[in-house]
């Protein structure tokens, strides 16, 4: 056995404890890391300090991110043309690297594929023919009066005896026409810039309220947008309401029949939470790397603070959380890409693990930066804000844990 190299960077670099990244994945990772360092990190920092209106204005650097990302040639159809395990690996490497660069921009780029991906999952040829793969998409599910209610698509997190208030968005289906009225909340990621929305809302077919999932082209007559949302974290991510005033489209735009709503909602939450797991392992890693480097530079007591055992021990706990989050995220991605049925339980577990790790590691990093961590000179305070948002995004972790627990309640394992 050879002795370990003295230089930690030679041993781990940004692949961490990956033992067997093949050549294609490594090359892809290096290109993505370059994009993260040269484009996403600096532009994300710049956008973080701009107003939400300026972020999406013509000429904003936000649009350069799209241009540069497209140059990589990464697409879902390319991904799905690969062998499943390799696709899972590439996907997790991609989402981790993008979020290493900037969480808000990574969400903007990744949520964009939602309408196309749902069309692909449900093998909906009409949608696949009508949604350009490189268009900007979004997922409109949250409503002003329905946040956790909507994520809890099968009602397992609700208190017994509770009932839901009136929906804020209803799609009325008559014959082959869908007429949509109402609104989605200001939290819709890409809501202010998207061209297509996967819309999950209530539906009226004349037999009481049901739920439906469809795609709406956002240039349809009667669609308007709200004011870009001002918020604490992920400020580079454009968010805002989408309003529907008698928006009429054909039932061809339904992702699946109304009767399959629960399956669509389950598939989407599994995909979205799995993605969050891969992404926020990247933010945890970014905060850890910043902290490790800083502790080699900052001197106290006459030595770099890495010389103090308490600092080393804190860093070890940060490192193990990063690696645990990455490992679960990749394991879940590999399972979901290869198993006959993707597993919501795994995706929820990965989402909670990574977002919790990102928050804890960013908070520990801020501690190691001391007062400097609180200032805009260093990236840590932004990472902490971005990580905090992720614990609410795509279903708050409290409700997701109840949902995951309810999956476990469905049966015992056989020995
Ligand atoms: C950065 C970010 C991006 C987002 N992107 C999107 C997007 O792309 N599309 C979209 O539609 N939405 C999006 N959302 C909205 C997100 O899905 C909701 O914020 C989330 O589902 C929680 O809903 P809420 O904010 O209305 O909180 P509420 O549902 O009002 O819940 C508030 C708190 O009450 C508690 N709580 C509520 N219900 C229960 C329960 N049944 N059991 C236990 N505790 C409960 C929880 O602690 C919860 O945090 C995003 C949110 C954020 C922060």
From TrEMBL:
Cofactor list: FAD
Query: One Pfam match, by short name?
Result: Acyl-CoA_dh_1
Keyword annotations from UniProtKB, A to Z: FAD, Flavoprotein, Oxidoreductase
Where does the Acyl-CoA dehydrogenase/oxidase C-terminal domain start and stop, copy by copy? 264-400
Family annotation (Gene3D superfamilies)? Butyryl-CoA Dehydrogenase, subunit A, domain 2 (2.40.110.10), Butyryl-CoA Dehydrogenase, subunit A, domain 3 (1.20.140.10)
Q: Cell inner membrane among the record's keywords?
A: no
Q: Which InterPro entries does this entry report, sorted A to Z?
A: Acyl-CoA_DH_CS, Acyl-CoA_Oxase/DH_mid-dom, Acyl-CoA_Oxase/DH_mid-dom_sf, AcylCo_DH-like_C, AcylCo_DH/oxidase_C, AcylCoA_DH/oxidase_NM_dom_sf
Annotated Acyl-CoA oxidase/dehydrogenase middle domain residues: 138-247
| Protein origin, superkingdom | Bacteria
Per the record, the similarity remark reads: Belongs to the acyl-CoA dehydrogenase family.
Name listed for the protein in its UniProt record:
Acyl-CoA dehydrogenase
Instruction: Tell me which species this is from.
Output: Pseudohalioglobus lutimaris
């Amino acid at each position: 056995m050879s002795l370990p190299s003295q230089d930690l960077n030679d041993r781990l670099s940004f692949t961490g404890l990956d033992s067997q990244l093949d050549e294609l994945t490594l090359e892809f990772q290096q290109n993505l890391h370059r994009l993260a360092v040269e484009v996403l990190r600096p532009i994300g920092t710049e956008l973080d300090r701009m107003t939400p209106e300026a972020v999406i204005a013509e000429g904003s650097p936000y649009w350069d991110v799209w241009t540069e990302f497209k140059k990589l040639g990464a697409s879902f159809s390319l991904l799905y043309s690969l062998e499943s395990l390799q696709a899972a690996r590439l996907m997790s490497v991609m989402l981790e690297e993008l979020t290493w660069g900037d969480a808000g921009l990574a969400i903007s780029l990744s949520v964009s594929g939602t309408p196309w991906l749902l069309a692909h999952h449900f093998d909906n040829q009409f949608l696949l023919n009508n949604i350009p793969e490189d268009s900007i998409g979004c997922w409109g599910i949250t409503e002003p009066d329905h946040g956790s209610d909507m994520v809890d698509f099968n009602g397992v997190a609700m208190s017994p005896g509770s009932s839901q208030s009136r929906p804020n968005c209803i799609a009325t289906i008559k014959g082959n026409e869908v007429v949509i009225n109402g609104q989605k909340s200001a939290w819709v990621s890409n809501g202010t810039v998207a061209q297509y929305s996967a819309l999950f809302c209530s539906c009226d077919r004349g037999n009481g309220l049901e739920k439906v999932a469809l795609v709406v082209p956002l240039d349809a007559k009667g669609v308007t947008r709200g004011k870009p949302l001002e918020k604490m974290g992920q400020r580079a991510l454009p968010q805002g309401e989408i309003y529907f005033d008698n928006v009429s489209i054909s039932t061809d735009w339904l992702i699946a029949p109304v009767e399959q709503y629960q399956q669509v909602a389950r598939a989407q939450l599994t995909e979205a939470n799995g993605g969050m797991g891969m992404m926020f392992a990247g933010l945890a890693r970014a905060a850890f790397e910043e902290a490790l480097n800083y502790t080699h530079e900052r001197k106290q007591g006459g030595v770099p603070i890495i010389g103090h055992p308490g600092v080393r021990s804190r860093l070890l706990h940060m490192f193990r959380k990063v690696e645990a989050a990455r490992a679960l995220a990749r394991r879940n991605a590999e399972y979901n890409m290869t198993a006959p049925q993707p597993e919501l339980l795994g995706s929820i577990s990965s989402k909670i693990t990574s977002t919790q790790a990102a928050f804890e590691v960013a908070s520990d990093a801020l501690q190691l930066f001391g007062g400097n961590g609180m200032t805009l000179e260093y990236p840590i305070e932004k990472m902490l804000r971005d990580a905090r948002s992720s614990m609410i995004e795509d279903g708050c972790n409290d409700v997701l844990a109840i949902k995951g627990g309810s999956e476990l309640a469905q049966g015992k394992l056989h020995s």
